Amino acid sequence: DSGVTQTPKHLITATGQRVTLRCSPRSGDLSVYWYQQSLDQGLQFLIQYYNGEERAKGNILERFSAQQFPDLHSELNLSSLELGDSALYFCASSAGPYTGELFFGEGSRLTVL
Amino acid sequence: AQSVTQPDIHITVSEGASLELRCNYSYGATPYLFWYVQSPGQGLQLLLKYFSGDTLVQGIKGFEAEFKRSQSSFNLRKPSVHWSDAAEYFCAVEIKGEYIFGTGTRLKVLA
User: Fold this and answer.
1) Which residues pair with B4 in a beta bridge?
2) How far apart are CA B100 and CA B91, in angstroms?
């Protein structure tokens, strides 16, 4: 158990819909990272937050947004969903930048029909 | 741009055989280096990491990795593979707070 909790584990929705994925980092970790894993794209970095502030942005679509709340949990919002958004979305946490390894949650599997 | 290359997409070995998974990175300095393993339906779990010092690092589950600065490589090894090692393995680097992952190597173990 990494200590990182992601909900929901599975989600099935239709094109055009909006979903929210939630992540609770390990106790004490200030940094949260979001990754998308699909068969054809591998593990793609989406966005990183540190103590509530956006710190880095990767290949995140404009239809996607995220935030980190004062209690340090984070949410990834995906809107106007397309078939190609079907993927496994991972959250990871670390104590902070430059502090070593990431701890991953078990992921949220999104299926868009 | 910085990158991590895992040249082998799939590797198949027999149980009990030795294993080496290759990883090369592109960066001017030495980054922090990691190997993660992902079992089906699971998140990524850290196998081992290299920050500095001894270039041969030991990890969990009997894995080790060797950092070779001259080759910009960080190859993962295991002397005797077990059937439970079947999984996908990711090499990663941390550069200035950004984590870059390789595309992964899927390991199949034959009984």
Assistant:
1) B25
2) 9
